[in-house]
Design goal:
mainly alpha
């Protein structure tokens, strides 16, 4: 039987696998951008899961008893940075997809390769 504590790791792994599948086997540029977004989401979930501690408290609480464990702030900071970078990456990839569609009239990668002269 699966322990519920491992569920976020399994979901993160599934998101990364689905994103890699979309990147490697889909030929539509928008679906490829969605794959990149899925990989980023899986990595973010993995980082947040690494920083989780049961019954942990936020490190900003200064009068915490010494027996209580505190949550590490580093994974949350890395996740926030990753979200900002992921948003910029997604916006850039979507703008490239719009430019490719305007120039070639299609988002299919195989047809774009065929159009080379």
């Amino acid at each position: 039987m699966m322990h519920i504590g491992n569920l976020p790791f399994i979901v993160a792994m599934l998101l990364v696998i689905l994103g890699l599948y979309a990147l490697l086997f889909k030929r539509n540029l928008i679906k490829m951008v969605i794959g990149v977004s899925l990989v980023e989401t899986g990595v973010n979930l993995f980082l947040v899961t690494l920083g989780y501690r049961a019954e942990g408290i936020a490190p900003i609480y200064t009068h915490a008893p010494t027996a209580v464990s505190q949550v590490l702030p580093t994974p949350q900071a890395l996740t926030l940075t990753s979200i900002v970078i992921g948003l910029a990456t997604t916006a850039l990839l979507l703008s490239f997809a719009v430019l490719v569609y305007r120039h070639y009239g299609t988002l299919d990668v195989t047809k774009i390769k065929e159009l080379r002269g």
